[in-house]
Write a structure and sequence with these properties.
Elements (H helix, E strand, L loop, with lengths): L1 E3 L5 H4 L10 H9 L1 E6 L4 E3 L7 E7 L2 E6 L5 E7 L4 E2 L1 H6 L6 E4 L3 E7 H10 L1 H27 L2 H12 L9 E4 L4 H7 L4 H13 L3 E4 L2 E4 L2 H6 L3
Helix pairs in contact: 4-5, 7-8
């Protein structure tokens, strides 16, 4: 892990939702407690059990948060994309990380120290509310994930992921996009084996619903895909 000592831009820190309303003076204080980190693809940022001394903000690249079993199996809990943060809740609890973090791509990120966050919470109730709101949104998303894994079939999980990857695109016309991460990571995120994911892609392709070439995906009939029951 490489840490750089160059100047951290306050403009970049304002991309973090709970920092946006801070005064210029307070934001400069945050800058003084922020480090820029660079991780190469495959590099581990921290391991499960390491102490949390702050939180991270991904500027570019991609980080996966995962749990590994003694026999080497891996479960991806979350994939963090640019302009997203992670680690706030563990930092506030003062507990070690329950997951490990690994760069899926070459990644540039910021580490904001725990001390300055605690100071801002003590002095600014509105900042504390925004920080809690952000963590609540993430918790809600994780609960939705648990519901998806528990109540939907493997095919429905894959379809839901593909449609979610389209964002706000019009599903009445074909849609093309690149998968945001590796198929292996997607499979783990959806609680599937890579072989099952490949089988479902093939099944949806044979049904005339999608075309997959490498990481490029074309949804041939998104509306019919949404209605597909397998």
């Amino acid at each position: 892990m490489n840490a750089t000592t160059g100047h951290i831009s306050p403009v970049m820190l304002r991309q973090i939702s709970f920092f946006r309303a801070l005064s210029d003076e307070d934001l400069e204080r945050v800058v003084r407690h922020t480090r820029e980190l660079r991780a190469t693809k495959g590099q581990v940022l921290f391991n499960r059990g390491d102490p949390a001394q702050g939180f991270h903000f991904v500027v570019e690249g991609q980080i996966k948060l995962a749990i590994s079993s003694p026999n080497g199996n891996e479960k991806v809990v979350e994939v963090i994309h640019p302009m997203q943060t992670f680690g706030e809740a563990v930092m506030l609890l003062g507990r070690p990380y329950p997951v490990f973090a690994q760069a899926v791509l070459d990644t540039r990120l910021l580490h904001i120290g725990q001390g300055i966050v605690s100071d801002l919470i003590d002095q600014d109730p509105m900042f504390a509310k925004k920080l809690l709101a952000g963590m609540a949104i993430r918790l809600h998303g994780l609960i939705q994930d648990v519901e998806t894994y528990s109540l939907r079939s493997s095919t429905q999980r894959v379809i839901g992921y593909l449609l979610q990857s389209c964002g706000d695109e019009n599903i009445e016309v074909p849609i093309e996009f690149d998968l945001p991460t590796s198929k292996q990571t997607i499979a783990s995120r959806l609680n599937l084996t890579p072989e099952t994911l490949s089988r479902i892609f093939a099944e949806l392709g044979q049904a005339g619903l999608i075309h997959v070439h490498g990481k490029h995906v074309k949804l041939l009939d998104p509306q019919r895909l949404a209605d597909y029951q397998g």
